[in-house]
Amino acid sequence: MSARPLTHLRHVDLAVPDYDKQLDFYAGVWGLTKVAEDSGIAFLAAEGSPESYVVRLRKAEEKRLDLVSYGAASREDVDTLAERLLAQGVRLISRPGEADTPGGGYGFRFFDVDGRTIEVSADVGVRRHRKIEERESIPVKLSHVVLNSPDLNRTRQWYERHLGFRLSDTLSSPHLGEVMHFMRISSQHHSMAIAQGPHTALHHISFEMRGLDEYLRGSGRVIRAGFKKVWGPGRHLAGDNTFTYFLDPHGNTVEYTTELECLDEDTWHPHVYDFSRPEVTDQWGTANPMNELIAKESFNDPDRGCFIAPPV
């Protein structure tokens, strides 16, 4: 196994009290496809992605982030990573074994330093997917996930040490210091970012669209459907990607994006961007200005699932 054991982001799993409303949002206006459902659990795929699913919804009494799942190249890499994490004192939830979810596969789960459940799997079946057509404004794939941490640099260092993430860029300001680290496991600018927050929570989940036209059409559809637009449309400097952020029915922030930067890893050096400069948060100047209210929405509710493994 290489120093970088993960290959890509697979799916993000959410638990919510109002399961039906949440499912209607993701499988309706947001544009995902329900591929399986059983006893208050639904698996949702992106039509352009080979992943068996990119979001799992579970009916629960309390809202929480159930887990974040990453891919590994092989079963052998899964076994090697599990043994390495165990030797490093990481708390495993399960040992490597067969998965009973759409696509199956072989994987295991463990807690990160903040108590989130992380899953790593390999040998997952590929879903029959398709090319997203011009003007088809539905997600192509899951792009990235951003996590709130009360100790930004401790979390960054944990992911670098244990899972081989590398720093791409940092957002900082003269008054607040460092507020976000963009982390990668491939040439994609980030598959995860870590944001400074008052508590451990999900910051946002991002979905990639086909192109600029599809991104804007999708953003317009969600706006017209009456869901709260938090921020956008605009274009970030770090990652050079577009953004429009919305709240799902349970207050989780979700993003449409496209054109996320791919890096030359041999020559890339991380930047520190001053996010108090408006051209850093939005190169275009089309988004509503970043302010405390937008930041507060992204703090989300404190995660009730820290160091508590999801039941499924």
Automatic annotation (TrEMBL):
It comes from the Bacteria. It comes from Streptomyces luomodiensis. This is VOC family protein. Residues 8-123, 141-259 form the VOC domain. InterPro entries: Glyas_Bleomycin-R_OHBP_Dase (IPR029068), Glyas_Fos-R_dOase_dom (IPR004360), GlyoxalaseI/FosfomycinResist (IPR050383), VOC_core (IPR037523). CDD domains: BphC5-RrK37_N_like. SUPFAM superfamilies: Glyoxalase/Bleomycin resistance protein/Dihydroxybiphenyl dioxygenase. It holds the Pfam family Glyoxalase. Gene3D superfamilies: 2,3-Dihydroxybiphenyl 1,2-Dioxygenase, domain 1 (3.10.180.10).
